[in-house]
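ugh ok so i messed up the first submission bc i forgot one of the chains. this is the corrected input, ALL of the components this time, i swear. 696 residues overall. if the numbers dont match what u have on ur side tell me asap before i send this to the collaborators (the ones from the other lab, u know who)
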Amino acid sequence: METQAPTIAPLKASLQAILQDLPLLYPELTLGLGVLLVLLGALLIPRSWRNEGLAVLSLLVIAASAYMLLYKGLPAEPVHLLARTLQLDKMAVAFRLLVLLSGLLAVLLSFREGKKLAGEYYALLLGLLMAAMLMSMASNLLLIYLSIETASICAYLLTAFSGGREGAEAGLKYLLFGAVASAIMLYGMSLLYGFTGTLDITAYGFKSGLMSLNIPILPVLLAAFLVLAGFLFKISVVPFHLWTPDAYQGAPLPAAALFSTAPKLAGLALMMRFLSHFLEAGIIFAGLRFDWQFILGLLAIITMLVGNLAAVWQQDARRLLAYSSIAHSGLLLAAVLVFRALGYKALLFYGFVYILMNFAAFLLVSMLKAETGSYKIADYRGLGSRLSYSSVLMVVVMIALTGLPPTAGFTAKLLVFSALWEGYSSGGSSMLLYLLLTGLATTVVALFYYLKIPYYLYLKKQPEAVVQVEGSTVLERILAGALALLLVLFFFRADWVMNWIEAFTISQ
Amino acid sequence: MVLFLFYAFAALTLASALVILFTRNLLYAAFSLIFCFLGVAAIYVLSGADFIGVTQIVVYVGGVLILLIFGVMLTNRISTSPVITDLHNQFWGYLLPAGLLVLLIGTLGQLALPDWAMRAQENATLVQASTVEPLGVHLMTQYVLAFELAGILLLLALVGAATLAKPAAPESIAVTSTGINTQNPAQP
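and heres the new structure output, hopefully the right one now
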């Protein structure tokens, strides 16, 4: 029981400790300040250039946050921040950088869509980024829940932002599924708290509480699985994927592109952190070491199968990208399940390349929508000769998403597959082999539906009546070209990305 | 006495929760939610979490529920007929929760008292005094980030809700002419 005397004396010390930790959190604080600035800017900036002004402001905030992260926020060694509510290691820094990169691209994509949206759009976008960055560091159940919830609320609102019936329906569906998922996760967290008496998953008390003989293993596993269900929802792994196609179809395109990268990568980081504590604890359960690899591997396999097979039937480019994003989640989850440095490296590489190709794909869909006025793949018929620039880039990006050379998508898939093989051949569970085989098999399926778009672009006849709506802007063309160029470049110079990743992997 | 009160309030909570589940009248469900929340608040107080108990009453019973009931009353033609919800997927709806119940009873039923609770019992450090002060100190020290994050969360939720609720601006109606424009009442 805390009384007056003992709390006041260490109060000064704990406040001092908080002030000392703050510089490492400047990136998040910058984003938080950015949210307020954008809200203020939406009031003050004149209507004629409000959208551009807010977009530039958001870009500046993200750039400032990245600067803070790279030049002020690199800890020499893994540290616990703010009385052990956050755990900052190099892996977390890498994930925070990836989140910022995807945020930057999302704002660049928003220039066109932004005209239709209110100024609050950018505030929600920055809030989502901040929450995703905190997610990749959180090591306290309270903070894990709050950061996931912040990211989710921003995502629900962004989904409904495009207005109209479609957006509202998608937002409501996303909200309902999300609320159920976070209720399930919260129930699991409350059980874990009851078992251990602490919220801090890095604490000794957490492990010893879970390993206590008073608590049978089944309830612990049930609680852990309930918590994982919340994470899996954010990563959109089957069977928690039902919201994905509708949300991607209803949301503004840049927001949909962001959903498939930033929260997903942050969720993977969170999952790695959470599972690593369970693996350590799990080994010591007398003879009952629970096989997370097996159950999560099974989910990853089902995810790859469902995502890829369902994508084959899609007629709408946005739904196709949604199912492709589900399929990629399966592969990213497989990379986590290797549970080795090699797997983490492959995950980071895949995550980085995935951001590039996913944003390129969404940008091209948005450009083609501007040029043809449709999201339907069937309406891309015969555009290859008319809109040669967008069409060539689309082919490059689709090849990258399939995972074929000469694009970085191939290198990324190769790294994940070799990490799986390495994990299997050095005495890992045979689930890794099944994951590898499913990944290879589904790549063939992926070839079929990704190349459907180039097939329509080049091999189908163009209909007579051509509606020219409006062209794509110069900025979009430059951005799409740059992204496609990077995808090809990183195939030939994969070592550049690898060097960067080497500096960030957990093997300090 | 405390044990008797606990079971009484637990029974109240459980019974009103079951009413919410099984009634098809939306207004009855909203009213029995009040009893459910009151029962939960009483359980908080009995477990020594006085601040949470009061917050539960002020925020949920005083704020959220009143809004909910107003919402139900204002958005529906309550005078003509009661609002009845539909039932879908009854088979899975009964099967899945029943399976979950069996699973939870099967697993959580095996539980003994966890270590930390036993230690607390031995040291007799169960909370007796007010929890307000330690809560405040912790919110401003250890959990200051969580506190601030909750602030940002609420701000963004408020901003987003206001943006979604406001009628579409004239130029955006022109853009989304195929969308629903019913939010803007027809003006003469």
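quick check: Residues 1-78+115-127 of chain B form a domain with the Four Helix Bundle (Hemerythrin (Met), subunit A) fold (CATH 1.20.120.1200). that seems consistent at least. Residues 170-188 of chain B have pLDDT under 50 and may be disordered.
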